[in-house]
Design a protein that fits this description.
The protein is of the alpha+beta class. The protein has two helices and 25 strands. The chain has helices at residues 290-334, 356-367, and strands at residues 18-22, 26-35, 38-39, 44-49, 54-63, 69-80, 86-88, 102-103, 107-110, 114-123, 131-146, 152-167, 175-185, 194-204, 210-212, 214-218, 221-225, 233-235, 240-250, 254-256, 258-262, 266-267, 273-274, 279-282, 285-287. The radius of gyration is 50 Å and the shape is elongated.
């Protein structure tokens, strides 16, 4: 894949394949891999060399401007940025690896609307470590510009491509996952799950480039990494990169188990797969079900209120029954005949009702012709 490269003395700015520099006269150019006759269909140069071996190749610089331009040519160590784009070290940083293996002219002069093919040579040192080594080759122009403080600075604009050299030997792809951290994003709708955000760092601990892929899980949810449509994530040997993956449909179950499961792939220069052992790391998180707890608390209050109201009603009903029984007992007691010889409350004896014996005796008297009238003093 062709990489676009540029530099502003210290920072690096990415430019499209055909770059334009503001130098007073519009300058637009491109740099691509080539053969002796001109640009070819390669976007990246890939080569496999033994330690101590050399190989020649070509690049093409095309000047799309109306004036002749002298382009500076350079090579430097390559790397991937945090967003997965390939670039090369800026000119104020020294290379320590494959950027030092490339020998090419310092400059090339290209006429208006013309293309020049430039040969270069890659030489691998005797003690080079087996595996993949990345570099970039660029053509640049320098123009005047100003920095944030208004001071005049030189602006170096670069455009180029990637060159990958695989040094022969034992190819051992491997990786590690560290710095795993997960956090829960709660939703206040108690009937919908929330989401989790998991961050982790992947380090390429082997000597082959890795294309990363896998899944991140959290409780009832999972997410594919990288997401569909996102740029592929490639990691060069020795590189580390931190990723953040969002996982949806995660229910808050207080403690939510989670994991990062990666299955990277590696390929040789013939585009044949190289076996890479998958790996995983635990990524649990705490997810307190606050909305659900509030709903359950509200239901509890309603049930408690209904229970309390029912008990209060039952207590009032029992009290009413007791009062009814007491009133009935009092009414029965007040309707009983007074006791013979009892006081009427005013000091006078209350006449008592005749007993059955007295009634019989009086009946016998009336039947014998005697007087039935009794006097009382």
């Amino acid at each position: 894949m062709t990489a676009a490269l540029a530099a502003l003395v210290a920072p690096v700015l990415l430019l499209p394949l055909a770059a334009q520099a503001d130098t007073g006269a519009d300058i637009t150019w491109s740099v691509t891999p080539a053969d002796q006759s001109g640009p070819d269909d390669r976007g990246v140069i890939e080569q496999q060399l033994d330690p101590g071996a050399s190989r020649g190749d070509y690049l093409a610089v095309r000047n799309l401007s109306r004036t002749e331009v002298v382009f500076a040519l350079s090579a430097a160590d390559g790397y991937y940025t945090a967003n997965g784009r390939f670039t090369m070290l800026p000119s104020d940083r020294e290379s320590v690896d494959a950027g030092l293996w490339i020998d090419l002219p310092d400059t090339v002069t290209v006429g208006p609307n013309a293309t020049v093919v430039v040969p270069f040579t890659t030489t691998v040192p005797e003690g080079a470590i087996p595996g993949d080594h990345a570099a970039g080759i660029a053509a640049s122009v320098t123009s005047a510009g100003t920095d944030a403080s208004g001071s005049e600075v030189g602006v170096e604009s670069r455009v180029g491509f990637r060159l990958m050299t695989r040094v022969t030997g034992d190819i051992v792809p491997s990786f590690s996952v560290t710095g795993v951290d997960s956090a829960y994003d709660m939703t206040w709708n108690p009937f919908r799950p929330g989401s989790a955000r998991t961050t982790f760092t992947v380090s390429n601990t082997g000597n082959a480039s890795l294309q990363l892929g896998g899944t991140v899980g959290a409780g009832t949810g999972s997410a594919v990494f990288p997401v569909e449509g996102a740029p592929r994530q490639e990691l060069l040997p020795g590189e580390s990169r931190t990723f953040a993956v969002a996982v949806s449909d995660v229910w808050p179950t207080v403690f939510v188990p989670g994991s990062v499961d990666l299955a990277p792939t590696a390929r040789d220069l013939g585009d044949n797969p190289v076996a890479v052992s998958p790996g995983s790391a635990s990524a649990p998180l705490w997810a307190i079900p606050v909305p659900q707890a509030l709903v359950l608390l509200g239901i509890g209050f309603i049930v408690a209120a209904l229970f309390w109201r029912r008990r209060r009603f039952a207590t009032a009903l029992d009290r009413a029954r007791e009062e009814g029984r007491a009133a009935a007992s009092h009414g029965a007691a007040s309707s009983d005949p007074p006791v013979r010889g009892a006081d009427d409350g005013f000091g006078s004896p209350v006449p008592s009702s005749p007993t059955p014996e007295e009634v019989s005796r009086r009946a016998r008297r009336l039947g014998s012709g005697g007087s039935s009238t009794e006097s009382s003093s």
